Amino acid sequence: DAGVIQSPRHEVTEMGQEVTLRCKPISGHNSLFWYRQTMMRGLELLIYFNNNVPIDDSGMPEDRFSAKMPNASFSTLKIQPSEPRDSAVYFCASKSPSSGNTIYFGEGSWLTVV
Amino acid sequence: SQQGEEDPQALSIQEGENATMNCSYKTSINNLQWYRQNSGRGLVHLILIRSNEREKHSGRLRVTLDTSKKSSSLLITASRAADTASYFCATEGSGGSNYKLTFGKGTLLTVNP
Protein backbone atom coordinates (compact mmCIF):
# COMPACT_ATOMS: atom_id res chain seq x y z
CA ASP A 1 0.00 0.00 0.00
CA ALA A 2 1.34 3.42 -0.92
CA GLY A 3 -0.49 5.11 1.92
CA VAL A 4 -1.99 8.58 1.77
CA ILE A 5 0.14 10.73 -0.49
CA GLN A 6 0.40 14.46 0.00
CA SER A 7 2.19 17.15 -1.99
CA PRO A 8 4.04 19.33 -1.60
CA ARG A 9 5.80 18.16 1.55
CA HIS A 10 7.15 21.64 2.21
CA GLU A 11 6.11 25.00 0.86
CA VAL A 12 7.27 28.50 1.64
CA THR A 13 5.21 31.25 0.09
CA GLU A 14 4.69 34.94 0.42
CA MET A 15 1.64 36.47 2.01
CA GLY A 16 -1.10 37.00 -0.51
CA GLN A 17 -0.12 34.12 -2.75
CA GLU A 18 -2.40 31.20 -3.53
CA VAL A 19 -1.47 27.86 -2.02
CA THR A 20 -2.77 24.52 -3.24
CA LEU A 21 -2.19 21.36 -1.26
CA ARG A 22 -2.89 18.00 -2.84
CA CYS A 23 -3.87 14.61 -1.51
CA LYS A 24 -4.28 11.14 -2.92
CA PRO A 25 -6.11 8.91 -0.44
CA ILE A 26 -5.53 5.20 -0.10
CA SER A 27 -7.22 3.33 -2.94
CA GLY A 28 -10.65 2.10 -1.91
CA HIS A 29 -11.01 4.55 0.97
CA ASN A 30 -14.23 6.54 0.69
CA SER A 31 -13.73 9.00 3.54
CA LEU A 32 -11.22 11.83 3.38
CA PHE A 33 -10.25 14.36 6.02
CA TRP A 34 -8.14 17.51 6.00
CA TYR A 35 -6.59 18.42 9.35
CA ARG A 36 -4.41 21.35 10.35
CA GLN A 37 -1.81 21.06 13.12
CA THR A 38 -0.28 23.97 15.00
CA MET A 39 1.46 24.21 18.34
CA MET A 40 -1.21 26.51 19.73
CA ARG A 41 -4.35 24.70 18.59
CA GLY A 42 -3.20 21.14 18.06
CA LEU A 43 -4.95 19.08 15.40
CA GLU A 44 -8.10 20.61 13.98
CA LEU A 45 -10.46 18.98 11.51
CA LEU A 46 -10.98 21.35 8.61
CA ILE A 47 -13.24 19.35 6.32
CA TYR A 48 -14.59 15.84 5.87
CA PHE A 49 -15.61 14.23 2.57
CA ASN A 50 -17.56 11.02 2.18
CA ASN A 51 -17.85 9.48 -1.28
CA ASN A 52 -16.38 12.71 -2.71
CA VAL A 53 -19.10 14.86 -1.14
CA PRO A 54 -18.25 17.46 1.53
CA ILE A 55 -20.15 16.43 4.64
CA ASP A 56 -18.73 18.74 7.27
CA ASP A 57 -16.78 21.90 6.49
CA SER A 58 -17.48 23.60 9.79
CA GLY A 59 -13.78 23.58 10.62
CA MET A 60 -12.74 25.60 7.59
CA PRO A 61 -11.48 28.79 9.19
CA GLU A 62 -12.73 31.32 6.66
CA ASP A 63 -13.62 31.92 3.06
CA ARG A 64 -9.98 32.03 2.07
CA PHE A 65 -9.97 28.26 2.50
CA SER A 66 -11.63 25.92 0.04
CA ALA A 67 -11.45 22.20 -0.59
CA LYS A 68 -12.52 19.99 -3.44
CA MET A 69 -12.67 16.31 -4.16
CA PRO A 70 -13.36 15.91 -7.88
CA ASN A 71 -12.95 12.12 -7.75
CA ALA A 72 -12.26 9.30 -5.34
CA SER A 73 -8.50 9.50 -5.74
CA PHE A 74 -7.77 13.20 -5.47
CA SER A 75 -8.48 16.15 -3.21
CA THR A 76 -7.15 19.68 -2.94
CA LEU A 77 -7.08 22.25 -0.18
CA LYS A 78 -6.62 25.78 -1.42
CA ILE A 79 -5.79 28.93 0.51
CA GLN A 80 -6.27 32.20 -1.35
CA PRO A 81 -4.92 34.64 -0.35
CA SER A 82 -2.53 33.11 2.16
CA GLU A 83 -1.60 34.83 5.42
CA PRO A 84 1.24 34.23 7.89
CA ARG A 85 -1.23 32.81 10.44
CA ASP A 86 -1.98 30.01 7.97
CA SER A 87 1.50 28.60 8.61
CA ALA A 88 0.96 25.07 9.88
CA VAL A 89 1.20 21.43 8.94
CA TYR A 90 -1.77 20.28 6.88
CA PHE A 91 -2.61 16.61 7.01
CA CYS A 92 -4.81 14.61 4.73
CA ALA A 93 -6.23 11.35 6.07
CA SER A 94 -8.52 8.68 4.73
CA LYS A 95 -10.46 5.66 5.88
CA SER A 96 -12.73 2.98 4.49
CA PRO A 97 -15.64 1.09 5.98
CA SER A 98 -13.42 -1.99 6.15
CA SER A 99 -10.71 -0.14 8.07
CA GLY A 100 -13.18 0.28 10.90
CA ASN A 101 -12.69 3.49 12.80
CA THR A 102 -9.00 3.83 12.03
CA ILE A 103 -7.94 6.72 9.86
CA TYR A 104 -4.69 6.76 7.95
CA PHE A 105 -2.67 9.94 7.76
CA GLY A 106 -0.36 11.26 5.10
CA GLU A 107 3.02 12.70 5.99
CA GLY A 108 1.68 16.24 5.91
CA SER A 109 2.35 19.42 3.99
CA TRP A 110 4.46 21.89 5.95
CA LEU A 111 3.34 25.38 4.97
CA THR A 112 5.18 28.57 5.87
CA VAL A 113 3.69 31.90 4.80
CA VAL A 114 6.11 34.80 5.14
CA SER B 1 -12.74 22.85 21.02
CA GLN B 2 -10.50 20.04 22.11
CA GLN B 3 -12.26 16.89 23.25
CA GLY B 4 -9.35 14.85 24.49
CA GLU B 5 -6.77 16.42 26.74
CA GLU B 6 -3.57 14.51 27.42
CA ASP B 7 -1.60 14.60 30.59
CA PRO B 8 1.28 15.15 31.07
CA GLN B 9 2.23 17.45 28.21
CA ALA B 10 5.74 16.07 28.28
CA LEU B 11 7.32 12.99 29.84
CA SER B 12 10.97 12.01 29.97
CA ILE B 13 12.01 8.54 31.11
CA GLN B 14 14.90 6.10 30.87
CA GLU B 15 14.92 3.16 28.52
CA GLY B 16 13.34 0.13 30.13
CA GLU B 17 10.97 2.13 32.31
CA ASN B 18 7.23 2.22 31.81
CA ALA B 19 5.49 5.31 30.44
CA THR B 20 1.94 6.23 31.35
CA MET B 21 -0.05 8.90 29.57
CA ASN B 22 -3.56 9.98 30.44
CA CYS B 23 -6.40 11.42 28.44
CA SER B 24 -9.60 13.07 29.60
CA TYR B 25 -12.59 13.92 27.46
CA LYS B 26 -15.90 15.68 27.88
CA THR B 27 -18.74 14.09 25.94
CA SER B 28 -20.01 10.59 25.28
CA ILE B 29 -17.98 8.55 22.84
CA ASN B 30 -18.19 5.52 20.58
CA ASN B 31 -14.52 4.76 20.96
CA LEU B 32 -11.21 6.26 21.94
CA GLN B 33 -8.06 5.84 19.91
CA TRP B 34 -4.39 6.47 20.52
CA TYR B 35 -2.08 7.69 17.79
CA ARG B 36 1.65 8.21 17.66
CA GLN B 37 3.50 10.93 15.76
CA ASN B 38 7.23 10.85 15.19
CA SER B 39 8.86 14.22 14.67
CA GLY B 40 8.11 15.54 11.20
CA ARG B 41 5.82 12.67 10.28
CA GLY B 42 2.14 11.90 10.09
CA LEU B 43 0.09 10.25 12.80
CA VAL B 44 -0.01 6.48 13.04
CA HIS B 45 -2.83 4.57 14.66
CA LEU B 46 -1.80 2.49 17.67
CA ILE B 47 -4.89 1.09 19.33
CA LEU B 48 -8.63 1.57 19.62
CA ILE B 49 -10.82 0.88 22.64
CA ARG B 50 -14.60 0.87 22.37
CA SER B 51 -16.86 2.51 24.89
CA ASN B 52 -18.01 -0.87 26.22
CA GLU B 53 -14.45 -2.08 26.81
CA ARG B 54 -12.37 -1.37 29.89
CA GLU B 55 -8.94 -2.59 28.92
CA LYS B 56 -7.09 -3.58 25.80
CA HIS B 57 -3.60 -4.83 25.06
CA SER B 58 -1.43 -4.75 21.98
CA GLY B 59 2.17 -5.85 22.36
CA ARG B 60 3.81 -3.49 24.87
CA LEU B 61 0.77 -1.21 24.87
CA ARG B 62 -2.01 -1.32 27.41
CA VAL B 63 -5.00 1.00 27.22
CA THR B 64 -7.68 1.46 29.83
CA LEU B 65 -10.95 3.31 29.55
CA ASP B 66 -13.14 4.59 32.36
CA THR B 67 -16.30 6.04 30.84
CA SER B 68 -17.64 7.08 34.25
CA LYS B 69 -14.63 9.34 34.69
CA LYS B 70 -14.35 10.09 30.98
CA SER B 71 -10.70 9.17 31.01
CA SER B 72 -8.25 6.79 29.40
CA SER B 73 -4.65 5.85 29.95
CA LEU B 74 -1.97 4.50 27.66
CA LEU B 75 0.81 2.45 29.22
CA ILE B 76 3.95 1.60 27.28
CA THR B 77 5.94 -1.07 29.06
CA ALA B 78 9.70 -1.59 28.83
CA SER B 79 10.14 1.58 26.81
CA ARG B 80 12.76 1.91 24.10
CA ALA B 81 14.50 4.93 22.62
CA ALA B 82 12.49 4.30 19.45
CA ASP B 83 9.28 4.99 21.40
CA THR B 84 10.26 8.67 21.53
CA ALA B 85 7.35 10.47 19.87
CA SER B 86 4.21 12.45 20.57
CA TYR B 87 1.18 10.45 21.59
CA PHE B 88 -2.36 11.65 20.97
CA CYS B 89 -5.70 10.41 22.14
CA ALA B 90 -8.63 10.88 19.80
CA THR B 91 -12.29 10.43 20.55
CA GLU B 92 -15.02 9.46 18.15
CA GLY B 93 -18.25 10.99 19.33
CA SER B 94 -21.52 9.14 19.51
CA GLY B 95 -24.52 10.35 17.58
CA GLY B 96 -24.60 12.25 14.31
CA SER B 97 -20.96 13.26 14.22
CA ASN B 98 -19.56 9.79 14.72
CA TYR B 99 -17.27 10.19 11.72
CA LYS B 100 -15.35 12.90 13.50
CA LEU B 101 -12.17 12.17 15.44
CA THR B 102 -11.26 14.93 17.86
CA PHE B 103 -7.65 14.97 18.97
CA GLY B 104 -5.98 16.23 22.09
CA LYS B 105 -2.76 18.22 22.00
CA GLY B 106 -0.62 15.23 22.80
CA THR B 107 2.03 14.05 25.21
CA LEU B 108 5.64 14.35 24.08
CA LEU B 109 7.45 11.24 25.30
CA THR B 110 11.22 11.19 25.37
CA VAL B 111 12.92 7.88 26.14
CA ASN B 112 16.56 8.35 27.02
CA PRO B 113 18.98 5.52 26.14
Characterise this structure:
The complex is a heterodimer of chains A (114) and B (113). Chain A is built from no helices and 11 strands. With 114 residues, chain A is mainly β. In chain A, a hairpin with a 3-residue loop joins strand 4 and strand 5. The radius of gyration of chain A is 13 Å and the shape is globular. The termini of chain A are far apart. The mean pLDDT of chain A is 94. Chain B is mainly beta. Helix content of chain B is 0%, strand content 58%. In chain B, the strands form 2 sheets. In chain B, strands 2, 4, 5, 9, 10 and 11 form a 6-stranded mixed beta sheet that branches. In chain B, strands 1-3-8-7-6 form a 5-stranded antiparallel beta sheet, with no helix packed on it. The model of chain B has no long low-confidence stretch (mean pLDDT 91). At the A-B interface, strand 4, strand 5 and strand 10 of A face strand 4, strand 5 and strand 10 of B.
Taking all residues together, what is the mean pLDDT of chain B? 91
Structural class of chain B: mainly beta
Number of helices of chain A: 0
Unreliable parts of chain B: none
Distance between the terminal alpha carbons of chain B, to the nearest Å? 37 Å
Low-confidence stretches of chain A: none
What's the total count of β strands of chain A?
Answer: 11
Count the DSSP helices of chain B.
0
Output the radius of gyration of chain B.
Answer: 13 Å
Tell me what portion of residues of chain A adopts beta-strand conformation: over 45%
The global form of chain B is globular
- Give the number of DSSP strands of chain B: 11
Cα(first) to Cα(last) distance of chain A is: 36 Å
The radius of gyration of chain A is 13 Å
Morphology call of chain A? globular
Helix fraction of chain A, binned, reads under 10%
**Portion of residues within helices of chain B:** under 10%
Topology:
The complex is a heterodimer of chains A (114) and B (113).
Chain A: E1 5-7, E2 10-13, E3 19-24, E4 31-38, E5 42-50, E6 53-56, E7 65-71, E8 74-79, E9 88-95, E10 104-105, E11 109-113
Parallel strand pairs in A: 2-11
Antiparallel strand pairs in A: 1-3, 3-8, 4-5, 4-9, 5-6, 7-8, 9-10, 9-11
Chain B: E1 5-7, E2 10-14, E3 19-24, E4 29-37, E5 43-50, E6 55-58, E7 61-66, E8 71-76, E9 85-93, E10 101-103, E11 107-112
Parallel strand pairs in B: 2-11
Antiparallel strand pairs in B: 1-3, 3-8, 4-5, 4-9, 6-7, 7-8, 9-10, 9-11
